[in-house]
Amino acid sequence: MAEQRKEKETDIKEKLLEKHHEAKLVRRIVFIVFIILMLSLTAIVAGGYSFVKNSLQPVDENAEETTVVEIPIGSSVTAIGNILEENGIVHNAKIFRYYVKFKNESGFQAGEYALSPAMTLDDIMEELKQGKIMQEVVFQVTIPEGRQLTEIATILSNRANVNEEEFLETVNDPAFVEKMMARFPVLLTEEILTEDVMYPLEGYLFPATYPFYEENPSIETIVETMLIKTQEVIIQYSAEMEEKEMTIHEVLTMASLIEEEATAQTDRENISSVFYNRLETGMPLQTDPTIAYALGEHLDRTLFVHLEVESPYNTYKYPGLTPGPIANAGETSIIAALRPAETDYFYFLATPDGKVLFNRTLEEHNRDRATHITGSGE
């Protein structure tokens, strides 16, 4: 009996000792695996860091030759990165794209560039932004702020050898508009196709000076160039639009109303505040330029008979914003549309000498009108 108990105890001890050795072996294996994993992870991180660091450096610091690189109109950052990598100007297209995003850069221009493998990514981006291209400018077209689509057609017919009627037919052609919407999906949304919108691209051709590098650029080239500029400008204010819960279409519409009411001496932020104050209280905007737009003609003076025009653009009859922009607004008006002054103004009046008077009440407004416009004030 005693011997059996002793054998049993010996057996238990041996099993415990065996389990102890097994546990010790498992811990050693786990430790070794952990070390291997850590070393592998370190190697991967180090390799990744080395790869990224190398990709951010010039391809060849000692390179003296340059390569002519063509960036097509409307090229995305991804497409530009691929072109640069294919031509040996950058190490890696994806790293270029991430670097551009990290630096928050934009505004790259189309054209032919003489680029070198010795250039840094910052140098390359600066070249592409400034448009230092090899081609010579054949001519330039300046589109002033506040011009409407029909006026832009006239300007282009005079300066860019474009047929005015053909331009208007093209920019209002549903197939062309759809093509531009596919090309600029963020900028041109379904809102421009709303039934009441008079011209889909009204307000989307940014007022600026445009250089052209061929004698007779196509209408599509001209429109794309202008849309690219609009997108470059408006995209800077994406966060503010999101904060105000406004779409690009709404911002450009409000900006166009501000633009058409503004003069060189006008405080756009105060005009913007009047419009927003009216919108918040349900008052009609009652801005005269919308009447002229609805009538399709220039008005030296808006008469009561003009206010009867039946149009969704008539802000005397219909509250809220117009269905779309009534002109192409400049950046200052876009900023004003997003950053109105904080006022309790509900009225403003442009005087003959270019000043703008702001009022809180209709009584004050009528008094200023009598003094500065009708001449019947005391």
Sketch the major β-sheet: 2 strands, antiparallel
Counting DSSP H or I runs of 4 or more residues, the number of helices is: 14
Quickly give the structural class.
mainly alpha
Helix content: 40-55%
Beta-strand portion reads 5-15%
Give the topology string: H per helix, E per strand.
HEHHEHEHHHEHHHHHHEEH
How big is the Rg? 33 Å
Overall 3D shape? extended
Q: What is the overall pLDDT average?
A: 86
Stretches where pLDDT is under 50 for at least 5 consecutive residues are: none
Number of domains: 3
Total number of strands: 6
Distance between the termini: 131 Å
Order of strands, widest sheet = 1-2
Commentary on this structure:
The protein has helices at residues 2-55, 77-86, 93-102, 121-130, 149-159, 164-171, 174-183, 219-234, 238-244, 248-261, 268-281, 288-295, 331-338, 362-374; strands at 67-71, 111-115, 139-142, 209-212, 347-350, 356-359. By secondary structure, it is mainly alpha-helical. The chain folds into three domains: 67-130, Dna Ligase, domain 1 (2-Layer Sandwich), CATH 3.30.1490; 139-234, no CATH class; 237-374, no CATH class. The protein has a two-stranded antiparallel sheet with strand order 1-2. A two-stranded antiparallel sheet has the order 3-4. Strand 5 (347-350) and strand 6 (356-359) form a beta hairpin. Helix 10 crosses helix 13 (331-338) and helix 11 crosses helix 13.
Summarize the model shown.
The protein is mostly helical. It has helices at residues 2-55, 77-86, 93-102, 121-130, 149-159, 164-171, 174-183, 219-234, 238-244, 248-261, 268-281, 288-295, 331-338, 362-374, and strands spanning 67-71, 111-115, 139-142, 209-212, 347-350, 356-359.
